[in-house]
Amino acid sequence: MSITRSTYFDFTVYTFLLISTIFINKYVLSVLKFTYPTVFQAWQTLIGAVILKYLTVKKKLDVSCLDRSSATHLLPHCVFFVGAIVAGSKALSRLPIPVFASVCNLPLACTALLDGCAGVGPGAGASARLLPVTAALLVVGAGVCTIIVDASLPFADSGYSWLLAHVVFLTAQILHARVCDPRYTEFDKIYYSNIFSVVILAPSSLYLEEAFSALHFQHRRQLRFYAGCACSGVLGVLLQLWAARVRACAGRVGVGASGEPGGAQARAPALARLLGSAASVCVFPSDHQLGLAAWLFVALNLLAATCIPASAAAGPDHAPLDDKHVSALNV
């Protein structure tokens, strides 16, 4: 019974953090129209770096020391992280949340297809891999069709170009995690990625003159803007930490009788995106100007993604948080 309660608790917290983070970011980027991604993400990752540094100082979480060799191993992950958050901000500011969430299932689907082709997917036999591979094909097909039927021309100036860049960076992160030195935990990657983002995005905002433009940003709901920026930073780093916990717990569950790893925890990301997309229709009603065909493909994508265990995307060589890291994230 305790395992069931823990599973529901992990899923509930993860869903709350994911939906809250996406909704607050959407509110700041689209409703308040703060269209300066380098400034916005530099602020978010600065808050994240401060929180993570506080946790390390208080010995709540440990981080591996960074030398020249480890920096070489982690640098690609940090670069992919920066590219993903900047492109994601640009895409989220221009596209409805259901479209954004559904296309973000593509990295999970692509890695599931790669595992299926290589014969290293979840489960012991081919029959156990049939459902994830079939669902992955549906996710990829529906995602591509959503872009085709809804994308406007010129494509380079649309939110879909940024969304595809976001997907490419996320997929690169997943694949790089499989070849990265396994001694580095997910917490190490989260910690150094946030610091690297601040180092890169802060001067970039000055070079691109977004920082100077942001100084003149005024909105009649200025207090809500400040509150939204602060909440997005705090919730963003909490989401990163809790997502690592969910993946670690899903890996601990292992492969069950059905041949599916991790149970409900392995499906938490897809289920959370599905619930968030449904709720966004009520929260942002004016932002959902999609055709019927696009809605059908989005729904098919979101539903099919729930059949793909997210633990499969991590791969066999992905280093999750260890016992000390997972226990430190208990509340």
Automatic annotation (TrEMBL):
Keywords assigned: Membrane, Transmembrane, Transmembrane helix
Transmembrane segments: 7-28, 34-54, 74-93, 99-118, 130-153, 159-179, 191-208, 223-243
Protein name per the record: Transmembrane protein 241
Keyword match Oxidoreductase: no
